[in-house]
Design goal:
- Helix content is 51%, strand content 9%.
- The chain has 8 helices and 6 strands.
- The chain has helices spanning 9-34, 38-42, 52-75, 85-95, 100-119, 143-157, 170-185, 215-222; strands at 129-131, 137-139, 194-197, 200-203, 210-213, 232-234.
- The protein has a 4-stranded mixed β-sheet with strand order 4-3-5-6.
C-alpha cells in the first residue's frame, strides 16, 4: 500500500500495467460521457456546488496539467501543473457549460495527449521528480497512477447509475489507501486507530479501535464517497464518519 516505485525491471512492468489500466478507465469515462445528454451534463454532480460539466472540465484540465509534468520530466524544463489554483478553478467554471459533444471532444483530446506524453517517458526520465498541483514532490513514474485516481474517483462523482465507487479497480484503491492513510497519520482527527484492508493492517494512531473491509469500500469511506458500506467497525458501535482528507 502506497509504496513509491523505484527503477527496476519490476517497475517497468508496473509502469506498463499502470498505462494499460489508465487507458481502460479513460475509455470507460468517455463511454459515460457519450451516453449523456446536454441536460445530463448540466445537472448537479456528486460534488457540492459542481455540475457534471464542472467535473468534466476538471478532468480535462487535470490531464493537461499532468501532461505538462510529463514534459518537464522529459526535457528538464520546469512546468507548473497549473499556473495558479485560481486560474485552474476559473478555467473549470469557464468550460463547465459546454455541450455534451464539446465536453466529450475536449476530454478525449486531453486523454490522447496525455497518453502520448506518458508513453514517451523513458525509464530514466520516470525517475525525475516533479511537483503536483498540491505541492507534493513525486517521481514522474507515479504520474499515471495519480491520473488514474483522478479518472476513477471523479468518474464516480458524476453521479450516474452506470459508474459508482464500486466500479473502481482494486489496484487503484489499494495504492491510494496508503497515500490517504499516510496523510491521516500526520493529523489528529482520524476516528479509529487503524484500518485493516483485506488482511493488511495500517496503523493511524494509538488505540484498539479499527475498521476492516475490502479495498474499494475502504477507499470510498476514506474519501467520503460512502458511509461505510461493506465495512465492519471494531471497538466502536458503528463505522464512524471520516473528516475531509484534503
Amino acid at each position: 500500500f502506497g509504496q513509491t516505485m523505484n527503477s527496476t525491471a519490476d517497475d517497468a512492468v508496473a509502469w506498463s500495467d499502470d498505462l494499460a489500466l489508465l487507458a481502460t478507465c479513460s475509455t470507460e469515462l468517455i463511454n459515460s460521457i457519450a451516453a449523456m445528454s446536454d441536460a445530463d451534463v448540466r445537472s448537479p454532480s456528486g460534488l457540492p456546488g459542481w455540475s457534471r460539466g464542472h467535473v468534466l472540465a476538471h478532468l480535462e484540465g487535470n490531464a493537461r496539467g499532468i501532461g505538462r509534468l510529463a514534459r518537464w520530466a522529459r526535457d528538464g524544463f520546469e512546468r507548473p501543473m497549473y499556473i495558479t489554483r485560481d486560474v485552474r478553478n476559473s478555467d473549470v467554471d469557464l468550460h463547465s457549460d459546454r455541450s455534451r459533444v464539446r465536453h466529450q471532444a475536449a476530454v478525449a483530446q486531453s486523454i490522447d495527449a496525455l497518453a502520448g506524453d506518458l508513453a514517451a517517458l523513458s525509464e530514466q526520465q520516470r525517475e525525475s521528480m516533479v511537483v503536483l498541483g498540491n505541492g507534493m514532490l513525486v517521481p514522474a513514474a507515479s504520474l499515471a497512477r495519480h491520473r488514474l485516481q483522478e479518472v476513477c474517483i471523479h468518474h464516480s462523482d458524476l453521479g450516474i447509475d452506470t459508474y459508482t465507487w464500486r466500479n473502481w479497480p482494486t489496484p487503484m484503491a489499494e495504492r491510494m489507501i496508503g497515500l490517504v492513510i499516510d496523510d491521516f497519520v500526520q493529523r489528529d482527527d482520524f476516528p479509529v486507530a487503524r484500518v485493516v484492508v483485506d488482511g493488511h493492517e495500517l496503523q493511524v494512531n494509538e488505540g484498539g479501535t479499527f475498521v476492516s473491509g475490502p479495498a474499494v469500500a475502504m477507499l470510498a469511506w476514506l474519501l467520503g464517497r460512502d458511509s461505510g458500506t461493506d465495512l465492519t467497525a471494531h471497538g466502536v458501535d458503528a463505522v464512524p464518519a471520516v473528516p475531509a482528507w484534503r
